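seq as requested:
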Amino acid sequence: MADFLPSRSVLSVFFPNCLLTSGEAEQLRKSREIDKCINRDKTYVKRLVKILLLGAGESGKSTFLKQMRIIHGQDFDQKAKEDFRATIFSNVIKGIRVLVDAREKLHISWGNPSNQRHGDTMMAFDTRSAMAHGHGMVEPKVFQHYLPSIRALWADQGIQSAYDRRREFQLGESVKYFLDNLEKLGQSDYLPSQQDILLARKPTKGIHEYNFEIKNVPFKMVDVGGQRSERRRWFECFDSVTSILFLVSSSEYDQVSDGGRQTNRLSESSTSSRPIVNNRVFSNVSIILFLTRRTPGEKVKQYRFKDISPEFSVTHQPVERPGLLVECFRKKRREQQQKPLYHHFTTAINTENIRLVFRDVKDTILHDNLKQLMLQ
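struct tokens:
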């Protein structure tokens, strides 16, 4: 009987690497490495907690993202602080220009008529040319040039009277904080503190992500611009969302929005929440309402819901009743929506407060996510 000689194909079953050329062996190694990467990525995606930050403009989304960066160990380096410094200078110049313009439109007299020239100086500020090289930010030498006029204007009683009527026009919440600290901002070696950075206001354009881990669980937080022109981008981020944090600035209930000068900010937040809480895509997604306040304010006791907007005229209860504020957002949901709408009250610039609240939010998200994985 002739000796049996197995074919190459048969041998390759039992000794897959023996009969390969060096080129084929290298291809096989690369293929296996790719398979490992794919499996790793699949495991990562399955474990990934993707949190979408939504809300109207100036609701505190970017501030919340800054807090996550501070809390989870990635502090701001020298370059980041210099960028925020330029943003703060921009906030101050924009804020004082808004106040000068509001003083005139509200027919408020100057405290000191000689400050008209400082007002003219600020209104002549060319935002496009002065900020062009800083990508919408003001450089230190530019700020130093305008600082004497800003200082004189903020000390004027007419500008202070305009500020007291800020609910009648759009003004950033942190403008007063920075104007009260002009001496610090004017120092040649000024770099923003952590609180300064948290209060710096730069409108979010496009989509920003921040990745971090908590006890080996990967988190991806996605911040989308809240201005009306940016909201079309919200739906681009809906894929594989684990949870939505919908942020509302509850301290801005007596102010108008930037996108529509006659639109109440709280009313706009309430309206923009409707398509989110009723979207079928999110039927199994945790939706958590964050009612943020930058700092406690006396004005809370001066208003009732009926003063905010016709939308809230159903109740004459004080705005300081937080349960009623949550109820206004719950009413935006259709009756068939059974999943609970979680809520938390926070102070946006208080890092320790945000740390404690996010710990509870994380537990809620992970608990709900685990239930969904078990049902799959």
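The mean pLDDT is 75.
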